[in-house]
């Protein structure tokens, strides 16, 4: 077994690998860019080596720097994590030549499966079901349109060396095929250094289901069941679960057998994932094989009890698989939420900045019988940089059933505190309350179908709004007076002396709340409906309030804002202002502040770099016309005209770095 390994990555996956290595008694070496000098993975490692400035192509993607770090520290092996150099065959070969073991598959398998065109040919030869498409060289946008017409719209335009949703576009028309080809080609060149593109049929109403495989150097190969990754945004996975609520045993066995056959066809040796698109009739088609550890590997670990990182290390050290196919079962249900630094209220634009507050939910067993796991590489005070992937953490919940795991995840998201940046926790929380998620009726089009105009917050029924109005009134009362002799629950105030009439303005609605207390506690009436006695706990300045109405208990995130409180629960995000009836009458007469008119301005929706400008000063533009492309966190975003107008001025240049809401263009009034 190795005595020391280097992790050629950063963030949560570097920390994840180090945790297993430490448990195995293996020393670890971290590498870092200048942006990550104080990062968690650097502090966690036994040794750390600087490899360059912040941009990935000047640090984490430099093979020479990683190999030099191995030589300097005496690391015997390298775990690449995912992304960066994890699927670069040349890096694997160079490590082997220098006497350092690559903890992953051999160069031939990486090369064969890393090229999506080649991988589909090999998959077909191995008897794996594949999607119709064009795998040859595409000459340009015109050729792409011709191919798309022959296959039949809609089509998927994909980077051959791609992954993580980058270099990928869906086209429903000639115009979209032309634009998608150019954008995918540019993104692929920028992200992977390889601009080859292929086109295949896009399966509508698809599910994205993948099979985890393990194979050693002695001819042993098994599959560890499936993960469903159908909840996606812009082809980037957001939520994963294991097992899939859609598969039956026969389909699972068939997908597993084909995945093992593909692994054997390329002499695969490590953990890998075979990804499939599955239609409504459970017909499945090969997408690609990821020759690395997947972001979503924790859900497989939670339902099988197998530490995939440990197995990768043991296989790389030459050991035989310790498991056979009969050892692999399905124990319970696991769900993973990818928590991203992107603002769902601003069309999911990347958000950068400092985590001024980071409080994760408690890990381990819960009172309800679930288990919470949080894989992260950040802590309070960490800087979310524009140079890297926007993922903050991977929050996982395991429970005996899917419904139980969903409820446990929703509770954990309510308890998660992130401040200082925009993040997608409200969207995640809303999805877990959605009837389609609850029923398992999902597809890769879920977010686009359910939030076609973007995410503006979860919807709430009248009963939930009444309970939140009651919470607001109780928070207000607890904040101004501590009742004499009041008890506490878990260090929080158990309010027994709240009483009186209040008018609560909650979002755009108004609620009449009456609090009446006696020796048995506090009784709440909202809008004339008796909610019964409430168990309530909150102290001024606390992050959360706990309220139980009958058998339904909720943990509500509470923040002080001007004139009231911001309450967050299950994806809801509402400002509450609590008044006496007389003050409420006066407040209703106050004029509303009219927001500034920005309709003649194109503002940068996120911090990023101007990649291109499609128009010039004086040009007339039409609604929907592309105006500029801004790149942030390795993704290119096309900014379009919201109406017909004439460009008055463009104060920015290509290559310029812009802050959030920086002016890109001004139009004639």
Q: Tell me the name of the CATH class of one domain.
A: Alpha Beta
Unreliable runs: 483-498
Q: State the end-to-end distance.
A: 70 Å
Structural class: alpha+beta
Radius of gyration: 27 Å
> What share of residues are in beta strands?
25-35%
Number of helices: 17
Find the count of extended strands (DSSP E, 2+ residues): 42
Q: Mean pLDDT, rounded to whole units? A: 91
Q: Sum up the overall morphology in one term.
A: globular
Largest sheet: 9 strands, antiparallel
Provide a brief overview of the structure.
With 669 residues, this protein is of the alpha+beta class. Among the domains are: 100 residues, 3-Layer(aba) Sandwich (Rossmann fold), CATH 3.40.50.20; 70 residues, 2-Layer Sandwich (Dna Ligase, domain 1), CATH 3.30.1490.20; 86 residues, no CATH class; 126 residues, Glycoprotein, Type 4 Pilin, CATH 3.30.700; 67 residues, OB fold (Dihydrolipoamide Acetyltransferase, E2P) (Beta Barrel), CATH 2.40.50.100. The protein has 17 helices and 42 strands.
Helix/strand layout:
Elements: E1 4-7, H1 11-23, E2 27-33, H2 40-44, E3 47-52, H3 63-73, E4 77-79, H4 89-97, E5 101-102, H5 107-114, H6 116-125, E6 133-134, H7 141-151, E7 155-163, E8 166-171, H8 174-192, E9 197-201, E10 207-215, E11 221-233, E12 236-242, H9 249-265, E13 270-278, E14 284-290, H10 297-304, H11 308-316, E15 333-340, E16 342-343, E17 349-350, E18 353-354, E19 357-359, E20 364-365, E21 371-376, E22 383-384, E23 391-399, H12 402-415, E24 417-419, H13 425-433, H14 435-439, H15 446-450, H16 462-480, E25 488-489, E26 492-493, E27 500-506, E28 509-518, E29 521-526, E30 529-537, E31 544-549, E32 552-561, E33 564-569, E34 572-579, H17 581-587, E35 601-603, E36 608-613, E37 620-621, E38 626-632, E39 635-640, E40 645-649, E41 657-658, E42 663-667
Parallel strand pairs: 1-2, 1-4, 2-3, 4-5
Antiparallel strand pairs: 6-9, 7-8, 7-9, 10-11, 10-13, 11-12, 12-15, 13-14, 15-23, 16-17, 18-22, 19-24, 20-21, 21-23, 25-26, 27-28, 27-34, 28-29, 29-30, 30-31, 31-32, 32-33, 33-34, 35-42, 36-38, 36-41, 37-40, 38-39, 40-42
Helix pairs in contact: 4-5, 7-8, 12-13
């Amino acid at each position: 077994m190795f005595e020391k390994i280097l992790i050629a990555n950063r963030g949560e996956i570097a920390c994840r690998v180090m945790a297993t290595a430490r448990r195995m008694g293996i020393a670890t070496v971290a590498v870092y860019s200048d942006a990550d000098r104080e990062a968690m993975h650097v502090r966690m490692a036994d040794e750390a080596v600087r490899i360059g400035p912040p941009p990935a192509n000047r640090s984490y993607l430099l093979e020479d720097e990683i190999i030099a770090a191995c030589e300097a520290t005496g690391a015997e092996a390298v775990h690449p994590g995912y992304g960066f150099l994890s699927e670069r065959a040349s890096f694997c070969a160079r490590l082997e030549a220098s006497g350092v073991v690559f903890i992953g598959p051999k160069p031939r398998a990486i090369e064969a499966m890393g090229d999506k065109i080649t991988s589909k040919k090999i998959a077909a030869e191995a008897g794996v079901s594949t999607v119709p498409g064009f795998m040859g060289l595409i000459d340009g946008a015109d050729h792409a349109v011709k191919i798309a017409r022959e296959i039949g719209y809609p089509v998927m335009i994909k980077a051959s060396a791609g992954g993580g949703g980058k270099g990928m576009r869906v086209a429903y028309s000639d115009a979209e095929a032309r634009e998608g080809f150019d954008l995918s080609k540019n993104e692929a060149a920028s992200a992977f250094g390889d601009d080859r593109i292929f086109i295949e049929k896009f399966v509508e109403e698809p599910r994205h289901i993948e099979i985890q495989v393990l194979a050693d150097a002695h001819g042993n190969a098994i599959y560890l069941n499936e993960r469903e990754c159908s909840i996606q945004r812009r082809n980037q996975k957001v939520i994963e679960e294991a097992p899939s609520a859609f598969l039956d045993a026969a389909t699972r066995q068939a997908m597993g057998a084909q995945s093992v056959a593909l692994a054997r066809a390329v002499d695969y040796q490590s953990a890998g994932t075979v990804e499939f698109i599955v239609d409504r009739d459970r017909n499945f088609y090969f997408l690609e094989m990821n020759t690395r550890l997947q972001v979503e590997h924790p859900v497989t670990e939670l339902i099988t009890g197998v530490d995939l990182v440990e197995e990768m290390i043991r296989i790389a050290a030459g050991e035989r698989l310790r498991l056979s196919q009969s050892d692999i079962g399905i124990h319970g249900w696991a769900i993973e939420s990818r928590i991203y630094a992107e603002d769902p209220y601003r069309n999911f634009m990347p958000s950068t900045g400092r985590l001024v507050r980071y409080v994760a939910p408690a890990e381990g067993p819960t009172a309800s019988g679930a288990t919470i796991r949080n894989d992260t590489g950040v802590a309070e005070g960490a800087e979310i940089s524009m140079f890297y992937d926007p993922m903050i953490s991977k929050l996982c919940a395991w429970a005996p059933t899917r419904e139980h795991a969903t409820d446990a995840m929703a509770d954990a998201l309510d308890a998660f505190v992130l401040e200082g940046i925009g993040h997608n926790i409200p969207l995640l929380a809303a999805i877990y309350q959605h009837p389609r998620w609850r029923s398992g009726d999902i597809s890769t089009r879920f977010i686009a179908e359910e939030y076609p105009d973007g995410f503006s917050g979860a919807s709430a029924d009248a009963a939930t709004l009444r309970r939140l109005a009651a919470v607001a009134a109780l928070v207000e009362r607890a904040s101004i007076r501590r009742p004499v002799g009041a008890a506490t629950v878990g260090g929080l105030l158990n309010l027994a002396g709240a009483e009186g009439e209040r008018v609560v303005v909650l979002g755009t609605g108004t609620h009449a709340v009456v609090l009446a207390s006696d020796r048995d506690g506090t009784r709440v009436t909202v809008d004339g409906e008796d909610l019964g006695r409430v168990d309530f706990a909150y102290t001024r300045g606390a992050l959360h309030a706990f309220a139980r109405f009958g058998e339904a208990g909720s943990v509500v995130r509470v923040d002080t804002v001007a004139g009231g409180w911001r309450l967050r629960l299950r994806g809801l995000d509402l400002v509450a202002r609590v008044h006496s009836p007389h003050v409420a009458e006066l407040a209703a007469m106050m004029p509303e502040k009219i927001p500034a008119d920005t309709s003649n301005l194109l503002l940068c929706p996120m911090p990023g770099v101007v990649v291109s400008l499609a128009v010039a000063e004086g040009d007339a533009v039409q609604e929907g016309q592309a105006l500029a492309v801004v790149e942030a966190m390795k993704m290119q975003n096309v900014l379009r005209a919201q109406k017909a107008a004439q460009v008055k001025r463009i104060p920015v240049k290509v290559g310029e770095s812009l802050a959030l809401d920086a002016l890109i263009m001004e139009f004639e009034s």
